[in-house]
């Protein structure tokens, strides 16, 4: 990356002593996120733009990495921090914690990628028993000073010293109860002074030490706490959820304090340059008078809409609007801004490219194209397949919700993150995780969430809070995860201790009662609201046209982004489909052929009896009779498939699974035989079946008699299937159709297997051509799903016209995993321990499986330059894997019909950003 060419950044072979670990806000820029973290880089960028940013400095991620690797800060760090602190003190005209006029600073985390609330922040560092008096005199406000001090002890105690935050909250609630007030702003200076004494006693009792009075000790301990928070449980969990690498480390920002809690002419807020929930342009955000920044994000006090600031402080409001426009035009994207107003003066504390909902991402991308700020290629980097998949989820049936039907609307909050979520009410994260693991769908209900609730938020279908706004912790994290969320439903009285919620009218919702929440409207229902297809799915199905009167702007935005992607992509996208119905749906969703038709799915239902007869055949005549009965049925299937996919390639995999899968369960069959014998009833057929099951039983069927081995061991099986394909293609061609069949031989491990099957297949195809007078062009290829096949791909390509990588089985055989067994037994532990960042069955293992795909593709094309290459495992629809397949040079990916739009979009994104994108 370009920033790593900076002479101050550690390079291979560079001594730690020569590395620059601290940067003033005037020294960096927005492109140094790797080094300064997102927050530090953007503070520097705003400083460069001449915006009002409080002075400060950033400790780099390199310092954090040294600390995390060695357990100690770099030797040079203390002196660098001292030098920058001294420069800050000179600029501000006062020293950190100075008794008569203290400089106070905040210490805030700031990783490369935004991790809202997952790491630590401490405000008001520098306050002590002495300097609090000086702050009070300078501000002319005792209440403000003692409020700031109690906030410092509370934050420092919880985040740095590890004190249970509930102890401070309980003491605060007790102080309000004693005063008979409901909000902390109604506590007076004397009350807060007593609270400081109480908080210090809590620290002494819990930590065995006094709250530190030395301001430099406070700052140094806070910096270490931020470093340590990178490896905190909630931070690691969030990184796993968001697929953020664990080795990036966090920067630390030390910033001179500005105060929003100096009175009614002060305040703090969060603003968005567009609505992060919908993407609509306008004034969006929350503002809180007489408060510090954490109050807004925590959702502890309910905010007012940002538009109210125009009435409260028009001068600051107008300046903020100008800054928001400047930032959006500069970053060319939705910006998320934190600001503080100190006695009528506006300060910018943070900006970043804002997290947004899936719908907002698509709308904003097309809006910015229309404004001329970005081009189509850049627009594709602003959306992703996971967001598109979210837009395809069902939504609530509004007509049912309005009409009753056993559900009742019991409240309405702020529509913080869209979607339709139904589940049983739970009131703490532990229960949410526990019930979810038992298969229950749950809605996590809290007064407000905090970072400790992350595991419960991940487990829940949706989140409902009675406090907080669009910028609260619950809202920001839910939007980032694509979770449905309704915040600030004030009319709902949430009692987490008694595990219940009281709704208007007095009805009590107990834990386990079913509730439904609509993150698009903010409505909360008691009972289960049915869902209907999303308008985006209706568009892909062809039932809604983007230009129609009933099509909303979201459908239009999705349509345009899909058109962008289709124009840019090189990878073609096919479908895994086994019947005409699925094929037609896939074609509506944009499939350019079938990459995998699993013929074993055609042998189920009424046809299972014919397969049983084939397996039980004792003579060649009986076997041929069974195959003869199956032939017309297979042919009919293929005719329908070729008709549905007329003019597009259809890759048909010959029978792959072990034959015993078509026979009854051995236990069930044994019971039937035993019962029949005990009743002296005829059971010859069941007995023959049981004997066949025993004969075909394998210790490890995945590695046994299946795939090409079936075709070699059971005479006539594969030739029957090839004949059915050839006759179906001839029938379609004679009906003026354009069938493009491709025959795929599964589980080949050596070229000799493929050569034998191919020779038989070519003979059958020639017979059909002669019998029908039709010239058929049927390609024959193989699945590469065994390591040996990948390693000998150059030889196999001599007999194959195409390769399709079966990455499901290839992953199993490379890792030595039986998927059905390992996912249930130890995958969770592997993910939690960081052995996997993500399951290798979900996203391609680039270093192992991916390396084989890459080398096999190269070797195959060295033998046969026109070799067609595709992938038909589940990875074909995984966004990250699609980028890898683009880079390797495959011709197509194949996935389930529902994932085709996602694969199309990601193929377009891969074409414009082959190295991926840091945009989050």
From TrEMBL:
Its UniProt entry gives the catalysed reaction(s) as: pyruvate + phosphate + ATP = phosphoenolpyruvate + AMP + diphosphate + H(+)
Q: Which residues form the PEP-utilising enzyme C-terminal domain?
A: 556-908
Q: Which residues form the PEP-utilising enzyme mobile domain?
A: 440-522
Gene3D superfamilies linked? 1.20.80.30, ATP-grasp fold, A domain (3.30.1490.20), ATP-grasp fold, B domain (3.30.470.20), Phosphoenolpyruvate-binding domains (3.20.20.60), Phosphohistidine domain (3.50.30.10), Pyruvate Phosphate Dikinase, domain 2 (1.10.189.10)
Enzyme Commission number(s) from the entry: 2.7.9.1
Pfam families associated with the record: PEP-utilizers, PEP-utilizers_C, PPDK_N
- The top EC class is transferase
Q: Where is the active site?
A: 473 (tele-phosphohistidine intermediate), 872 (proton donor)
Any single GO molecular-function term of the entry would be: kinase activity
Member of which family?
A: Belongs to the PEP-utilizing enzyme family.
Task: Please give the name of this protein.
Answer: Pyruvate, phosphate dikinase
Q: Name the species this protein comes from.
A: Streptomyces sp. R02
Q: What is the lineage of its organism?
A: Bacteria, Bacillati, Actinomycetota, Actinomycetes, Kitasatosporales
Annotated gene: ppdK
């Amino acid at each position: 990356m370009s920033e790593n060419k900076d002479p101050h950044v550690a390079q291979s072979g560079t001594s730690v002593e020569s590395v620059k670990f601290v940067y003033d806000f005037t020294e960096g820029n927005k492109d140094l996120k790797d080094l300064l973290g997102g927050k530090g880089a953007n503070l520097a960028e705003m400083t460069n733009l001449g915006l009002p940013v409080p002075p400060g400095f950033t400790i780099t991620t390199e310092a954090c990495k040294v600390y995390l690797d060695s357990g100690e800060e770099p030797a040079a760090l203390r002196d660098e921090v001292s030098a920058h602190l001294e420069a800050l003190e000179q600029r501000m005209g006062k020293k950190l914690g100075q008794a008569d006029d203290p400089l106070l600073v905040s210490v805030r985390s700031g990783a490369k990628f935004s991790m809202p609330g997952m790491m630590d922040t401490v405000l008001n560092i520098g306050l002590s028993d002495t300097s609090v008096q000086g702050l009070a005199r300078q501000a002319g406000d005792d209440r403000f000073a003692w409020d700031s001090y109690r906030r410092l002890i509370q934050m420092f105690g919880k985040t740095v010293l590890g004190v249970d935050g509930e102890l401070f909250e309980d003491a605060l609630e007790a102080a309000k109860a004693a005063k008979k007030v409901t909000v902390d702003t109604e506590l007076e200076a004397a009350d807060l002074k007593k609270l400081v004494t109480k908080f210090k006693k809590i620290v002494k009792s819990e930590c065995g030490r006094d709250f530190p009075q030395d301001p430099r000790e406070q700052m140094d301990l806070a910096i270490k706490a931020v470093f340590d928070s990178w490896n905190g449980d909630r931070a690691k969990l969030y990184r796993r959820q968001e697929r953020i690498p664990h080795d990036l480390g966090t920067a630390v920002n030390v910033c001179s304090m500005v105060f929003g809690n100096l009175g009614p002419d002060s305040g703090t807020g969060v603003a968005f340059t567009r609505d992060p929930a919908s993407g609509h342009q306008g004034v969006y955000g929350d503002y809180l008078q007489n408060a510090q920044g954490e109050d807004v994000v925590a959702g502890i006090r309910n905010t007012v809409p940002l538009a109210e600031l125009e009435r409260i402080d028009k001068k600051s409001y107008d300046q903020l609007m100008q800054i928001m426009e400047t930032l959006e035009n500069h970053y060319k994207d939705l910006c998320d801004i934190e600001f503080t107003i100190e006695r009528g003066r506006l300060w910018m504390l943070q900006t970043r490219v804002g997290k947004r909902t899936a719908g907002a991402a698509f709308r904003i991308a097309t809006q910015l194209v229309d404004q001329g700020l970005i081009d189509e290629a850049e627009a594709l980097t602003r959306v992703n397949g996971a967001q598109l998949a979210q837009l395809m989820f069902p939504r609530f049936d509004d007509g049912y919700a309005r009409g009753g039907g056993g559900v009742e609307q019991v409240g309405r909050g702020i529509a913080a993150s869209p979607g339709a979520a139904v589940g049983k009410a739970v009131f703490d994260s532990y229960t949410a995780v526990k019930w979810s693991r038992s298969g229950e769908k749950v809605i996590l209900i809290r007064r407000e969430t905090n970072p400790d609730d992350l595991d419960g938020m991940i487990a829940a279908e949706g989140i409902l809070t009675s406090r907080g706004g669009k910028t609260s912790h619950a809202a920001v994290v839910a939007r980032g995860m694509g979770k449905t969320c309704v915040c600030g439903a004030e009319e709902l009285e949430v009692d987490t201790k008694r595990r219940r919620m009281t709704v208007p009218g007095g009805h009590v919702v107990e834990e386990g009662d079913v509730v439904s929440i609509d993150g698009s409207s903010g409505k909360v229902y008691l009972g289960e609201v049915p869902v209907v297809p999303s308008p985006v799915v209706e568009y892909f199905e062809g039932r809604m046209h983007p230009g129609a009167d009933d099509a909303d702007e979201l459908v239009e935005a999705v349509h345009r982004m899909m058109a962008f992607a289709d124009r840019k992509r090189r990878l073609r996208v096919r479908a895994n489909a086994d019947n005409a119905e699925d094929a037609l749906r896939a074609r509506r969703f944009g499939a350019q052929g079938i990459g995998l038709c699993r013929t074993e799915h055609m042998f189920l239902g009424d046809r299972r009896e014919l397969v049983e007869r084939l397996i039980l055949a004792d003579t060649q005549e009986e076997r041929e009779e069974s195959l003869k009965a199956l032939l017309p049925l297979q042919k009919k299937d293929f005719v329908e498939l070729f008709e549905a996919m007329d003019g597009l390639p259809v890759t048909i995999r010959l029978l792959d699974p072990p034959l015993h899968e078509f026979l009854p369960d051995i236990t069930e069959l044994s019971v039937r035989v035993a019962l029949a014998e005990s009743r002296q009833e005829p059971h010859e057929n069941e007995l023959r079946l049981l004997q066949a099951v025993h004969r075909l039983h394998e210790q490890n069927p995945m590695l046994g008699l299946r795939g090409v081995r079936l075709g070699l061991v059971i005479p006539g099986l594969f030739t029957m299937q090839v004949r059915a394909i050839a006759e179906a293609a001839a029938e379609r061609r004679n009906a003026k159709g354009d069938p493009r069949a491709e025959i795929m031989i599964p589980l080949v491990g050596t070229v000799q297997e493929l050569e034998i099957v191919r020779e038989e297949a070519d003979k059958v195809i020639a017979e059909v051509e002669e019998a029908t007078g039709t010239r058929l062009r049927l390609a024959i290829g193989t699945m590469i799903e065994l390591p040996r096949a990948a390693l000998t791909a150059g030889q196999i390509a001599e007999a194959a016209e195409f390769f399709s990588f079966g990455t499901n089985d290839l992953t199993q055989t490379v890792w030595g995993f039986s998927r059905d067994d390992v996912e249930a037994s130890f995958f969770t532990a592997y993910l939690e321990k960081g052995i996997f960042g993500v399951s290798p069955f979900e996203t391609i293992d680039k270093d192992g499986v991916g390396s084989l795909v890459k080398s096999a593709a190269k070797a195959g094309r060295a033998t046969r330059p026109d070799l067609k290459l595709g992938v038909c495992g589940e990875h074909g629809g995984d966004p990250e894997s699609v980028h890898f397949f683009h880079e390797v040079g495959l011709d197509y990916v194949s996935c389930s019909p529902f994932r085709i739009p996602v694969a199309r979009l990601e193929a377009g994104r891969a074409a414009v950003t082959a190295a991926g994108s840091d945009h989050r």
